[in-house]
Amino acid sequence: MKQLELYFVRHGETLFNTMDKLQGWADSPLTDNGIQIAKLTGQGLSDTSFQSVYSSDMKRAMDTANFIISANKSFTGDLKKSAHFREAFFGGFEGLDNQTTWKSIATPYGATNQTEMLEQVTPGTVRDRMHAADPLHLAETGTEFWQRIDQGLTNLLVQEPDHARILIVAHGTLIRSLAIRFSDNRFDPIHEFPQNGSITKFSINANKTKILDYNLTN
């Protein structure tokens, strides 16, 4: 059975990150610090061989991936872009204040923020709650979110060779949601959000996905 090792990296710090704004399918550029973070992650992975490098099709992820590729000593291929690894879509909440928005979504459920909801329900249910609260009803539902990501993972298993090590530059909520879904007692992704430039590793085959490391930083 084909087995892959996936290195998920969260993109470098962006302008919206510094403003604590919701940033899903909306995009903002890497800051100078974000570029430095991407370069440091690249240095940390410079001796790691990858058979393929993917990123979401958001510019912040593609830019981060290209900095990592530039520092790698063995990778000579091209960056592969995939909308399957985009961040969650926050719909009408895109670009709004993070803390204020999540408080408004969580309050009807007896919580004050996203983390408190995740202590009680799955990431998919949180996506459903955001969709229900979105005045435009554009935010992704849990089903839409997971179908998109699962299709991306299935594509990797079909397209990539057995025992390939693959780098995927993606986003915080996506990586955290995967970590919660496949969590074990070694990690606490509910209370620990992936840092910019951090690395989270999974092994995956057709029957099982296992988390190997979470939120590793330089």
TrEMBL record:
One of its GO terms (molecular function) is fructose-2,6-bisphosphate 2-phosphatase activity. The keyword Hydrolase applies. GO terms for cellular component: cytosol. The active site is at 11 (tele-phosphohistidine intermediate), 87 (proton donor/acceptor). SMART domains: PGAM. Substrate binds at residues 10-17, 60. GO terms for biological process: negative regulation of glycolytic process; regulation of pentose-phosphate shunt. The keyword Nucleotide-binding does not apply. It comes from the Bacteria. Transmembrane segments: none annotated. InterPro entries: His_Pase_superF_clade-1, His_PPase_superfam, Phosphoglycerate_Mutase. Keywords: Hydrolase. PANTHER family: FRUCTOSE-2,6-BISPHOSPHATASE TIGAR. This is Phosphoglycerate mutase family protein. It comes from Paucilactobacillus hokkaidonensis JCM 18461.
